[in-house]
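The records we work with from here on pair a chain with its fold. Taken together, the tokens spell out the fold as the letters spell out the chain. The record below shows the convention in full.
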Amino acid sequence: MFKEFREFAMRGNVVDMAVGIVIGGAFGTIVKSFVADVLMPPIGLLLGGVDFSNLFLVLKKGTTDGPYGALVDAQAAGAVTINYGVFLNAIISFLIVAFAVFLLIKVINRIRREEEAPPAEPVTKECGYCFSTIPIKAIRCPNCTSELAGS
């Protein structure tokens, strides 16, 4: 049974998929950091100093009454919140990852189309008399001077 599992796990597709999942997870972490630490702070600054990760709505107050200055304070007090700022960051992260995947698939499809291009029209043919290669438009063979039928 171990041998069968090993054969399954070492197949090319399974290994490729595992590598893709690991790289995808790492890429997702990078994009999340990019959105939260690089992209959103300037946008928040342009919108009047808003920190999107601290946008929340209190549904139920916690052990201490609000208002809560930050999401961390509300969570520490045990308040029930809707964290729409964190959700907004997640949406932006998703859009960036989806766009990156779209660009990757676009490149792969272009490469496949180039590989699957139809063969070029032939530019030469074979003389039926001397079997030498001659231009396709020739009506007489330059090697044996035979007149070619059907040309």
